[in-house]
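Let's practice the habit of predicting before peeking. Look at the sequence and jot down your guess about where helices and strands might fall. Then scroll down.
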Amino acid sequence: MEKILYFDKQGRLYLPEDMRRALQFKTLIARMIDRKIVLEPIEDDPLEALTKLGRKKLKGKSIEKLKKEARKETEENAIKKLRR
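Done guessing? Here is the structure:
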């Protein structure tokens, strides 16, 4: 899918609805590689990724607490990647 996009006066880039729907993510990392902008998704539901780690690590924690912890860790990892 290709579209011609423009920045508005505040420097924002609008992604058309069909592109946003195709991405199915609300949070993205924007990375510049040479003269290109690459958007990489960050999991919207980090709990799903956490379940792969095993039940022992999840035991005794509420779903809301797990989501907050996972979201924080995901954002910290994204920031680390951006600083490289």
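How did you do? The chain has two domains: 1-42, 43-84.
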